[in-house]
Amino acid sequence: MEPAWVDVPSGSDFPLANLPFGVVRPADGEATIVVRIGDHVVDLARAGIEPELTNRTSINALMASGRGGSVRERVTELLLGPARQELLHPVDDVTALLPIEVADYVDFYSSIHHATNLGRLFRPDGEALLPNWRRLPVGYHGRSGSVVVSGTPVRRPCGLVPDPTTGEPHYVATRALDIELEVAAVVGYPGANIRPDDADRHVFGFVLLNDWSARDIQAYEYQPLGPNLGKSFATSISPWVVTLEALTPFLVDPPVQDPTPSDHLAASRPWALDLHLAVDLNAEEIASTGFAGMYWTFAQQLAHMTANGAMAHVGDLLGSGTVSGPGERERGSLIELAWRGATPIGLRDGSFRTYLADGDTVTLRGWCGGDGSPRVGFGECSGTIKPAPPDERRKD
Amino acid sequence: MEPAWVDVPSGSDFPLANLPFGVVRPADGEATIVVRIGDHVVDLARAGIEPELTNRTSINALMASGRGGSVRERVTELLLGPARQELLHPVDDVTALLPIEVADYVDFYSSIHHATNLGRLFRPDGEALLPNWRRLPVGYHGRSGSVVVSGTPVRRPCGLVPDPTTGEPHYVATRALDIELEVAAVVGYPGANIRPDDADRHVFGFVLLNDWSARDIQAYEYQPLGPNLGKSFATSISPWVVTLEALTPFLVDPPVQDPTPSDHLAASRPWALDLHLAVDLNAEEIASTGFAGMYWTFAQQLAHMTANGAMAHVGDLLGSGTVSGPGERERGSLIELAWRGATPIGLRDGSFRTYLADGDTVTLRGWCGGDGSPRVGFGECSGTIKPAPPDERRKD
After folding, report:
1. Mean pLDDT, residues A97-101
2. Torsion sign (Cα): B177, B181, B186, B192
């Protein structure tokens, strides 16, 4: 059933079954929390729905209150009731803002195809997967303060990169600007030592995430403490936090893990997500894959992250790591799609890419269902590359 | 000159020249911002000093306002004026809380002696320093949500550690719980692409920091994305944020860097800090060293952290990394002091340590000046090890 007084276009990511949360600024007003329906947003505070929690600039307090579910129920009743057009804004008339105040951002590495591809590219003579990879969800802390909402331009970063001839490092604009197609979970309820089967108490919802990466800066800096400047300049997320509740019909069993994980990472409930993902470069699809085949689930990532007693906090963001499938066009980064420059990506306009050019726009899309069955989607996570800033200190 | 109506004990870390900021909860009241003098704290809001900024539970807004200097001036006037005993609390009557709301926590690796020691321990057959180490301040993002104030107990963490015989990883309590003696800078004013010579506009002050580390968990997990669970369980900081202003007399020229750093990391102003540091284990000094010999300065760390366009935010915490000097008793971690178990540390009670035992208390101390000249100190950063939690999922 869809509401009678709000048009939900056929195939929309945002039918009544979705109702994701976001934060928007109307042209004439203050930032506030909304729920999206079709191509509109519902102003929750104006509708009198928990105004003390919804007249806010992030959904953190709403998540922490545990009332997200009842808010979505009240919005459902509202939308199935008599028309209240004054509560709606067309989504094109508002500016979507970052929906969460990000606490810690931890990015994982949970696709076996991605980890294998990167291992083959960077350690051609060794085992593609390191010994720990099948034993725990490998991850690291990213920069929370660099998380931005979809639509925010991404400035090409500068950093120290060795000259290919002399090996001498120079501070230059990256020549290897890449994307990472990811999904991220948002923590809505705190806890430590969380068991995978309890993850549903703590995970509020999900967004798409693009972990922009400068591969040349990353390659030079990352030993021995991991990525830093190569990834800390920008991480984009989609503006609509799709709730776990809305996605529950799409939770499926994950792939069998071999070896069997340690008891503290063992799960009996299905936590893989049957989600379709696609990457567009300048409006042309260059990759598509599925999320259900991820080796480690968000439930296991959350269990691992808190297994040493660390608290998960409201607003924590857990990235899946780059999502790649087994096929050559199922890869979630350009370094994989173009195989580190060996097989450049051809575009319809006749140009080729090994990495991103200034002016390129990358858009991630993600949706569950469709093809006749009910659809619950994420919308888009998009960003356009701006040229590096002029800087007299650079040598390039 | 010292105030006439507040006793400042001889040799105190907190004379009138210091006046660091903290947040405390009095036995009978709400958390509020104070300035420490001798063994007392001054309640700023009660003194009528910027109450809208000081009647708070963190100093972030005060730092962001740019009024820290004028607040310290007003406290100086107050302390040199007529007695106002009602504004003081003995420091022993209040509970010191975390003084800052931590935004991003980035930990560096800026001691050449520490990096060389770790390189020798972990890569005995290779070059001790990796090629990037002298070119940029290597660092990574730590877990902001695990930063706690001095005095908070530290629970021995569990994690996956390979069995020494079979190599099979098990979820066990760490057997290699370590400390890291560090100093950290607190960002009080935001910015990107910060030059080292502009760092004084952005750095508000400093604290001592202990980056507790589980070496066995860390060793298994850290390839290829760096430390995570081995360090994310707890990071302690001292409660008093000593201002850059108070430490300016102790800024000195850093060691000569060879090779000369890239222009964007080059500095002409002195940013090494002539600070004495010591580590006590169960009230017995086991190490002491100086901070002035650090290879990379906080000004360079801040420049590096923002050189890719990333914003530094108010509340960002930049750790120096473990501070070690050239001598055998100048090492800031147990793995170095006991040389990974080869030379256990003997204590006065006849016991030995390679790593920490349950019940051990570690206290970091730091001070500038002294020995007849004016002293400005940090007080203590302390923590006591609690046993690992019982857990039926563990195999140990």
Report:
1. 98
2. negative
As a residue count, chain B comes to 396
pLDDT digits (tens, 9 = 90+) for A71-90: 999 999 999 999 999 999 99
Distance from the A245 Cα atom to the nearest Cα atom in chain B, whole angstroms: 26
Q: What is the pLDDT of residues B215-270, one digit of tens each?
A: 999 999 998 999 999 999 999 999 999 999 999 999 999 999 999 999 999 999 99
Instruction: Out of A136, A225, A229, name the one closest to residue B226 (CB).
Output: A225
Separation in Å, CA A230 to CA A142, A159, A233, B139, B309: 11, 8, 7, 12, 11
> Is B114 an active-site residue?
yes
Q: Which residues of B touch A224 (CB under 8 A)?
A: 122, 130, 138, 222, 226
Q: Which residue of B has its CA nearest to A169?
A: B135
* CA atoms of B22 and B255, how far apart (whole Å): 32
Residue B92: strand, helix, or coil: helix
Dump pLDDT digits (tens) for A131-165: 999 999 999 999 999 999 999 999 999 999 999 99
DSSP helix, strand, coil percent of chain A (3-state; round to 5): 20, 30, 50
CA distances from A308 to A30, B141, B171, B211, B256 (A): 41, 17, 10, 15, 40
Which alpha helices (DSSP H) does chain B contain, by range? 51-54, 60-65, 68-80, 112-122, 215-221, 244-247, 298-305, 334-337
User: B302-314 pLDDT, tens per residue?
Assistant: 999 999 999 999 9
Among A141, A5, A194, A174, residue whose Cα is nearest residue B146: A141
| Closest B-chain CA to A321 | B225
Is residue B183 a contact partner of residue B208, using CB atoms and an 8 Å limit?
yes
Q: How far is CA B112 from the centre of its chain?
A: 18
Q: Using CA atoms, how far apart are residues B319 and B323, in angstroms rounded to an integer?
A: 10
pLDDT number for residue A392: 64
Residue of B225, B265, B268, B304 to mutate, interface with A, max A Cβ within 10 Å:
B225
Q: What is the pLDDT of residue B395?
A: 65
Task: List the single residue in A130, A140, A159 with the smallest CB-CB distance to B308.
Answer: A159
CB burial class (10 A; 0-12, 13-18, 19+) of residue B9? exposed
- The chain B residue lying nearest A305, using CA atoms, is B229
Which of B116, B117, B141 to mutate to probe the A interface, most A CBs <10 Å? B141
Quote the longest CA-to-CA distance of chain A.
72
Cis amide prior to B190 (ω within 30 degrees): no
Chain A residues touching B122 at Cβ < 8 A:
224
Partners of A109 on chain B (C-beta within 8 Å) are 225
Of A106, A157, A313, the CB nearest to B309: A157
Residue B171 structure tokens: 């979820």
Residue A395 confidence (pLDDT): 66
Spot the catalytic one: B89, B113, B114, B304: B114
Q: For A95-131, b where at least 16 C-beta lie within 10 A, e where not — what string?
A: ebbbbbbbbbbbbbbbbbbbbbbbbbeeeeeeebbee
Q: Are B104 and A143 a contacting pair at CB < 8 A?
A: yes
* Residue B78, pLDDT above cutoff 70: yes
Residue B335: count other Cβ atoms within 10 Å of its Cβ: 24
How far apart CA B300 and CA B271 sit, in angstroms, is 9
Q: How many C-beta neighbours within 10 Å does residue A373 have?
A: 9
Domains and CATH numbers, chain B: 21-97 (no CATH), 105-390 (3.90.850.10)
Size of interface A-B (CB pairs under 8 A): 181
Closest-CA residue of A relative to B309 is A233
- Residue of A40, A114, A202, A304 marked catalytic: A114
All residues at 6 or more sequence positions from B123 whose CB lies less than 8 Å from its CB, including other chains: none
